């Protein structure tokens, strides 16, 4: 599956425990990443300072669903189940 540009669910729903430029302590689940622009695109995409965990994320049907709202719900549910 290809990532849906402008979805942003993977930059909002999960917690990230490693530093992000502008968020030195990472980010809690459900908090919008400071590096997500107004179009829900990553400002760090393709840059060395992008956290490794972000680069490892792969869009799949079971995680991203069929639309942006479903992706946010699915990733939030997975995040809650792993805490």
UniProtKB/TrEMBL annotation:
Superkingdom of the source species: Bacteria
InterPro entries: Puta_zinc/iron-chelating_dom, UPF0153_domain
Protein's name according to its UniProt entry: YkgJ family cysteine cluster protein
Species lineage: Bacteria, Pseudomonadati, Pseudomonadota, Gammaproteobacteria, Alteromonadales
């Amino acid at each position: 599956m290809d990532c849906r540009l402008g979805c942003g669910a993977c930059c909002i729903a999960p917690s990230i425990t490693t530093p992000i430029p502008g968020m030195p302590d990472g980010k809690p689940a459900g908090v919008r990443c400071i590096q997500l622009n107004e179009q829900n695109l990553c400002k760090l995409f393709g840059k060395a300072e992008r956290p490794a965990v972000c680069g490892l994320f792969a869009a799949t049907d079971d995680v991203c669903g069929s639309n942006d709202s479903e992706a946010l719900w699915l990733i939030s549910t997975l995040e809650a189940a792993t805490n």
